[in-house]
Amino acid sequence: MENTDIKTMPRIGEKAPDFEAITTAGPIRFSEYNKGSWVVMFSHPADFTPVCTTEMSAFAVDKEWFAQHNTKLLGLSIDSIHSHLAWVNNVREKTQVYMDFPIIADLDMKVAQLYGMLHPEESMTAAVRAVFFIDPKGTIRLLMYYPLNVGRNMEEIQRALIALQTVDANNCALPVNWKPGDKAIVPPPKTLEQMEERIANTEYEKVDFYLAKRSLN
Ligand code: BEZ
After folding, report:
1. What is the CATH code for 171-217?
2. pLDDT, tens digit (0-9, with 9 covering 90-100), for 21-32
3. Residue whose CA lies nearest to ligand 1 atom number 7
4. Three-state DSSP class for 44?
């Protein structure tokens, strides 16, 4: 494969490209799977590899947490369905963790290319560790890319998901290291009148008129 065959990656704010794929839960059409819920879609470089096993197991352990946050999981690697099934069964036998969320068998790299998961300087044949956060309207809201040799952080994945859902529910922005229960950023004023109002406001925690925080209910 020439480097020029690698598609550009979808970006934040864009519609998640639709596709059909074979998964460990049977065939899916992404737009159907995404209907009415968030999807966290993530690629791993290869089945039967150690870092991938730790990551995919972590998703499986927290599957119920994601369901409680109206979020479906969708894994992917450039492996066959037979490899996926054997790996899922092996991990269950060895660790009692059942990776029973759909994992796409992307042997032809169709989905990996569509989503920019192939980074040729890292590998021409294995997907990097990507995470796509896709909202119920099918919009890509947040992207993460990790190299082959560094595992992702499940706490950050979950924090990011809650943060996205929080900004949607509260029309706010969130500061560095925000976590549930922390205050949110109040959008900064855009006119002198709004600036004067903000200066006079005693309700918010203020550093100055452009940096104010409020509690979320
Ligand atoms: C791993 O999951 O351990 C791994 C996979 C591909 C390259 C390097 C590490």
Report:
1. 3.30.1020.10
2. 999 999 999 999
3. 148
4. coil
